[in-house]
Amino acid sequence: MIVVQKFGGTSVGDVERLQRVAQRIVDTRRAGHDVVVVVSAMGGTTDELVDMAAQVNRRPPQRELDILLTAGERISMSLLAMAIEALGVRARSFTGSQAGIITDTVHGKARILAVTPERVRDALGDGDVVIVAGFQGVSRETHDITTLGRGGSDTTAVALAAALEADVCEIYTDVDGVYTADPRLVPAARKLDRLAYEEMLELAAQGAKVLQVRSVEFGRNHGVPIHVRSSFNGSEGTWVVPQEDMVEDAIISGVAHDTSEAKVTVVGVPDRPGVAAGMFTALADASVNVDMIVQNVSSDGRTDISFTVPRGEVEQATELLGGRLEGIGAADVIVNPAVAKVSLVGAGMKTHPGVAARMFDALSRAGVNIQMISTSTIRVSVIIDDAHVDDAVRAVHAEFGLGADAIVEEQGAG
Amino acid sequence: MIVVQKFGGTSVGDVERLQRVAQRIVDTRRAGHDVVVVVSAMGGTTDELVDMAAQVNRRPPQRELDILLTAGERISMSLLAMAIEALGVRARSFTGSQAGIITDTVHGKARILAVTPERVRDALGDGDVVIVAGFQGVSRETHDITTLGRGGSDTTAVALAAALEADVCEIYTDVDGVYTADPRLVPAARKLDRLAYEEMLELAAQGAKVLQVRSVEFGRNHGVPIHVRSSFNGSEGTWVVPQEDMVEDAIISGVAHDTSEAKVTVVGVPDRPGVAAGMFTALADASVNVDMIVQNVSSDGRTDISFTVPRGEVEQATELLGGRLEGIGAADVIVNPAVAKVSLVGAGMKTHPGVAARMFDALSRAGVNIQMISTSTIRVSVIIDDAHVDDAVRAVHAEFGLGADAIVEEQGAG
Questions:
Q1: Cross-chain CB nearest to A83 (options B57, B65, B82)
Q2: What CATH number labels A245-414?
Q3: Would the pLDDT of B86 be above 80?
Q4: In B, which residues are within 8 Å of A98 by CB distance?
């Protein structure tokens, strides 16, 4: 059996933790499995390197920033290999490039185009534990080192698992698995045993930080079973699996929230074909990541268009649109950074009408005003004032009986 | 004109120094030259990484140690490129592997087998300043990352200069050039303006730390002019050049000393052909670096053989020989770690007899006892008690009138 295990920065944050991770890897190897480990930089390292870069150049060139940041995994991967060898098991570490993680050329958020893990396979064939640097690859076109963006090690792990046809990709983290909501906000939140790729995708895309969205896409596209579990104990975590492996669709799987975006409204846009397209093409060309888009009903041939973007990209978006107001024929650009997105996700939603209405009602009773709404077949998202995010998540979580207590209560009542 | 500039760890020890180095590089570029920069890890980084390795594994596997250590240059090279870009000049950094530094597979002290700097040439063609990580390469056979040993960045620089047919290889350091002796031991020591490769080779091999031995060999074999100069000022340093470019051979160029070795004596070795060969073949197979070897005159068919090795390899050497005493038929192995080597170097020695005798006489007058002697055509080395190394170096330096004062005195007397 081939097992891919991914350990994040907190799991290897100091020598003691690194040694605990090494022991867990050795146990898996001694149980007779072929083990490939993907490791992130030791906790805090990446931030330190970013700080150093900022000291020498306020706008460091992305190519060089990527080279700098990949030093972090180089350190953690070689130390982890040494720690494993200290326990009497042979280990060999490879950079993303050496492990065949081939990407496009978009420095800072490159996409994996192919995985050619010949050296990994050879090392497994020799009986070695293989350690691979997460978060990084090499560009097919320029042969330059690239990074995959925050959380990119998850994607490295799942992509490698797919290429090696591994039996499981274990994502070790500092929580026990995927919860019905962030347990820091909702103490009653319950750990999910199983989740379909589509649900995990929506949860991750809507702010659940436990897995990078692209890693789930890779898992879904290649059918890799993903097991999200704690690096601090041996308990079963959450399995992310194909829809057909779900015994029963829960109506609602969980509530996600995201306070990292801001709302931008372009006021008085002429209601003509092509105007919105022009605006969002310009934003896309500038690599601004637009998330939700809502256009109000037009009156007097004019409309307001609102959308959300990561807070770090607000300045770029408003500068770009501000300079085109005249061309667009719009009146103004207004920014509201103090917003939060709350999303309800569940595969059973498809066959259960009325979920959105019940969510809006619960928010209304909790005194939370809704600014924007967006839905997919298995998700309902709302934009609200970020001061109300805790209340909103708790109200929705309770309304749909997602908590551990709620379930016991229902069972008692049944 | 192609200029290769090498900056060591102290030259890029913090952000401010890094920026000063960037300014110097930019000045060279703006003077119209093609500039290739070889950079070491920021001062202290390599030691920190070695410490971390020791924490997780008392005997870290060399392959993994090499991967770990190369993170140091990755950080300094990308930061330096960023600092140069901040000054408005385009810069691109390359790892040893990317720059085509091809080595053998001896981790920790790999030798450069070839340099294929296609990417460096392309980047120069684009008008970019090129930064290359010193100290590291990639093995031709295993494709693994290798390191060249302490001081390896000098060799990277000279080897690159040779491959690029550069006009000069400038080695920037924290001293003004090559001195007639270590100025910390001999305040009267004088900076040399010019030195032949052979002399520099002997000085470096005998303990002068200003250049790695192999870098000088590369320079000699490929005729690369090496300019050793200060990174803190613009003064001319010391040029290391072919013998034929020396205006006149100085009888003596300088005095080197080395306190990093220990003396090992095998007592009572049978004086038969093949016994010594067997001993030193075994040591070589175990990669123990034997330096001086002296065999005393035999009596009763037995002899004592003494040799020096780096102090870090004494244990290995004695274990190896201790286990073979019976096979060799020798009586004992004795170690003396408290020794120093003092060497007198000068190309003019070839045609001036009596230099060795004059050196031994000076040492005798200074009360220094000689334990071992070894000579080449342009060098005389002695092993002495390391408590006397300062006295010995000063005595020899004064005897041959190498100091600045001494010269003035002689001129005054002439």
A1: B57
A2: 3.30.2130.10
A3: yes
A4: 143
Q: Which residue has the higher pLDDT, A228 or B251?
A: A228
Summarised one tens digit per residue, pLDDT across range A288-342 is 888 888 887 667 888 888 999 999 999 999 999 998 888 888 889 999 999 999 9
Residues of chain A with C-beta less than 8 angstroms from the C-beta of B53:
78-79, 82
Residues in Cβ contact with A217 at an 8 Å cutoff, skipping those fewer than 6 apart: A201
Domain covering B265-332 assigned CATH 3.40.640.10 in the classification:
no
A145: tokens are: 């080192």
**Are the beta carbons of A65 and B78 separated by less than 8 Å?**
yes
Sign of CA dihedral A240, A241, A244, A248: negative
CATH: 3.40.30.10, 3.30.2130.10, 3.30.565.10, 1.10.10.10. Which one for B339-413?
A: 3.30.2130.10
Query: What is residue B272's predicted lDDT score, i.e. its pLDDT?
Result: 81
Per mean pLDDT, which range of B67-76, B380-389, B402-411 is the poorest? Answer: B402-411
What is the model's pTM?
Answer: 0.84
Measure the CA angle with vertex A394, ends A392 and A399; round to 5°: 95
> Within 10 Å of residue B218's Cβ, how many Cβ atoms?
26
Report whether pLDDT(A83) > 60: yes
The ranges of chain A annotated as CATH 3.40.1160.10 are: 2-174
Which CATH code of 3.40.225.10, 3.30.200.20, 3.40.50.300, 3.40.1160.10 fits the domain covering B2-174?
Answer: 3.40.1160.10
Q: Give the C-alpha separation, B15 to A352, whole Å.
A: 60
Size of interface A-B (CB pairs under 8 A): 109
- Asked whether residue B248 carries a pLDDT value surpassing 80, the answer given is no
